[in-house]
Each structure stands twice: as structure tokens, then as C-alpha cells.
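Just wondering, does anyone understand what follows?

——
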Amino acid sequence: ITPRRPPNRQEVIMAHRLFSLIGLCIFLLSTVTSAFGANFTRFYLNDINPQAICNDGSPATYYFRPGYGDGSKRWIVRLQGGGWCYDGPSCASRKKNSPYWMTSTVCPPSITDDPSTGPAGIGHAGILSSNQTENPHFYNSNHVWLWYCSSDSNLGTRPASNATFGYNFLGKHIINALVTHLKEKQQPSIMQAEEVLLTGDSAGGVSTFNNADYIGSMLSGVHGLKYRAFVDCGWFLDIPTYENKTNSFQYVARSLLNNWHVQYNDACVKYFGPENSWKCFHAQYAWSHVITPLFFQEYQYDSANLGMDGISIPFLDNADELSYALKFSSTMSQVTSSVPGLFFPNCIKHQSIDTAMFHTVQIGDVSMDTAVWEWFSSNENRPAGKRYIDTCTAKPGCNPTC
């Protein structure tokens, strides 16, 4: 047997380099694999603040999935929507029909992108999807999903008592605890972020523009941070309801203030004064008082707005309801006319950021997620934004991508 020749110095160096390269590839592959499609992990907030609790007293909860690659320094913080309860009858109805919006006991320790694994089967796709095809701009960001369980747009400050029908309305404490936990307990810490996009849908949209400056002040220690807020369907118009059939959104706004002692945006409250600070619930009055740069997505025929106003969905075959809806859309166009950043498709829909519609709804050849991304990725301190207004006017809901 011919003995093997010992490797020369050059061969040893090449072998070391090869093994180092293989090791690096394995490490990078494992890092990307573990991050892509990784589960959301549940975190409780009552250890940060004992008052960070849901309506029923269970601990406030959020889910987190770390970012990777070029998204590792970008954070998407979603304040989930889900309506309100604002007086005795509405709270009784909420407890009966959607009790999962009042508790965190439905929240499993971890969830995947599959909506069936989420609390009460609630979807969390859209802007928090880890699928690059469905969410090309934000898929690999750090994803934060605050579970909504305070029924007060995360603005209330009133603990349980007979006057609150035994429920806690402590959403403002939940917001404080969330940001504190992200700063002090989460790994990685949001203090390492370069970009933060606060976003919320429906009641979470009201939460977003009312809490944006408060959260921004809590993140003021992050050097060079780009911080902005995107509101999805958070415009609940202050207008008379259809044939005065239902409680108006003004009634909701006043009740949240009087019953749960909500804290709306400070500058807006200062402008309108304590007695009229209920107006700060309505984006049509509040948005111009928010310091944080804002971008809005709103449907011309918002189905949740119209539904609570007493309109049946769909309404196209009812002449009276159609007339109301057309006036509603005209009013929505008027009150958003001076908003610098707006995506305004002609759809009879409500909410988008938790569904595939965030990527599929288009105005012309621009999708909703692309419009948000172009605004968010601007390097201007206060981006001028862009207004995307649907030109489809044939009938309500005529946008084919709805």
C-alpha cells in the first residue's frame, strides 16, 4: 500500500478555508430558515404593569416574531382592531357575541401564519405575513401584534368597578406596558431599531393616530429613528346615522370618554378642550394635530362605518340606502381632501392589513402595500406622501381588485 503524502501548507490553508465557508453557509442558512416563517411567540404584559390587563382581568398579551436580513432593524407594531363596548348594552352584547375581544385566555403560547392557529381564528396575514410573495416589503421585519382585549381602542384608564359593569378599561396602560416591554425585555430590543412603523386597523386605527405621539415620546431615546404611523380604516365619520336607527359614532366617542376615561391625543385634547375632546376619536378632527407622520388607507364605502350607521351590506338595490351611502362617500372624500398621504379605493370593504387585500387591492397599477412602502421608505423627515384616489366612479365598489 502506497502511503498517503501529507498535505502541503497550501492544501491545508485551502481546506481550512473550505470548511470555514461551509460552516458560514450552514450558519446563515439556519439563521434564515429559523427566521422565515417562524412562529409568533406570546408575551404577557402584566409583569411590566399590573394594570396592563384585559376587560376580564386576564393579562394583556402581544405576539412577537424577530426580523432578519435587511428587515432586522425594521419594526412593524400592529395595534389590532375589533370594535368597542362603550356602555352597558354594548358590553353585554360584546360579552355574548364576541367574548374573545375581552380576554387573553384565548391566546395560545405561539402561532403561525395560518389564521386557524391564532386566537379565536383571527387572521394576522397582510402586513405581518412572513411570506415574501404576499408581503414583499415587510415580510422579514420584526413583527409585533398586540392582541386587542380592552374594548377601548387602547385608550382607557378606568379599572373595574360597578360603574364599569365589572370590566377593566385600561388600554392606555397596555400601550405603556407594550412599549416598555419591547424596550426592556424583548430580544432584540426595539431600542436597536432604525425604523418603526406603527399601524392599526379599525378600532386599532383610532388607537394608532391617538397613541402615535405617545408611543413616539417613549421611543425618543432611539438615536436616528425613522418613526411613522399607518392607519387602516380608522375614519369613523361624525355624521347622522341612517334614519337615526342606531347609536352614532359621536355617541361612541363621547361614551368612551365619559365612561372609560380614555386619553385621546394630547394636542388634539388641548385644542378642543376637555368637554369637546370626544372629537379626537374622529380622524376628521384629530389627524392634523398628530405630530407623527401619518398615512391613511380608507375605503370610499367603508362597510363598518355604513353598517353601524344602519345601512345593510350590500345596499345597491335599496334606493334610500344607496342615497345615504353616496352622501357618506362624498363626505369621506371631503374630510380626507387635505390629507397628504392617502390610499382611497372605491370598495365596499373594511380593514386590509390583516388580510391578503393589503397586497392585492390596487388603484391603477399601484397596490396598497406598495403605496405604504413608498411613503414609509422616503428619507424625508416629514414625507409629503402621495394621494391615490380611485377614478372608478361607475357605482359603489366598482374597483375590480376589491
User: Anything to note?
Assistant: The longest helix spans residues 9-35. Residues 11-36 have pLDDT under 50 and may be disordered. The two ends are 76 Å apart (CA to CA). DSSP finds eleven helices and twelve strands in the chain.
